[in-house]
Amino acid sequence: MVNAEENTTTEKNIGRSAYPGWLVASTWIVAVLMTALMGFLLYRYFTGLPLFSFLNPAGQGIQTSSVSTLPAFEPTRSYEAVERSANPDTVLPVGSRNEVVEYAVASGDSLFGIAEQYEVEPESIMYANFDILNDNPHLISVGVNLKIPPVDGILYQWKEGDTLEQVAAKYYAEVEDILFYTGNNLDITNPVIDPGTFIMIPNGWRPLEPFVVAVTAGDNAGVTAQIAGPGSCTPAGGFFGSYSFVWPAPYYGVISGNDYWAGHQAIDAQCYQGDSIFASDSGVIVYAGPISGGYGNLVAIDHQNGYLTLYAHLSGFNVSCGQSVSQGQVVGFCGSTGNSTGAHLHFEVRQNGGFINPWYVLQ
To answer: Which of 285, 283, 286 is nearest to 245 (CA)?
Structure first.
């Protein structure tokens, strides 16, 4: 039989064999290493060092903060650069102007061409020069000085008793547009304008004074008034028009000077001095001679169907008043008579007493 002492010895031996010495030692080593690592990481954390940079000594893939150093200040050192000077006038776009300029009309000029050159509407130039043009673009002549406004609108000379409200209303404009236009140089808090001062009324407008050279014609011509002249007659009978109109000058579709617009109810067809001018449609000549209004030498054809065509600035005639002509027949020769700055044909189409755009009927 086994006694109690032998049982106790056996249990102690079994306990020792369940926990080998190497395992116990390894456990203690791991515990010590983990404690050391935790302490190391806490140290790096509280000192602001990257926690795991020691695992990548070369620093690959890990961003670290660095302190940049500025280059040394060298006041005597020269630098290669492009100098850009300050432009004190940067409020307005390049090419803008606030001043009225005077333009001397030269040979070959037209109101339409001058307006295009200065980037304003032809009406704006006529508004500014009523004393010279009287709303008639034909009254420009070589050597005449025209006032060219800086923007579209009315160039207005202030009168005693004028108010901004009255002037703005008269020209269908806004008071604010007048006040804030920089070229007027107005104190918007106290806009005092001396009589005689010219100011711009931006976008202002007024109806143009009509200018009409009326000619004697038959009952169906649509002419509502009559101006006697040396080339006038009252024909009886004659050819009738076909309601189709051909180009009256040698160069089809080419404009020289003014096109059709509100202030020029005709087209200026290109031609050279002495070129033949053709009847746009069949009819009877009701005027052939010089006439007032800046037209110079004029031929007018009554087509006896409500239409009337006019051919102005001619250098000479190939027809006489009362004569019937066929479509395409030569009626005169290109010139620059009357108020004209160069050879061209001023061509009008009238219907039942009113102007119509020639482009609407020309073939």
So the answer is: 283
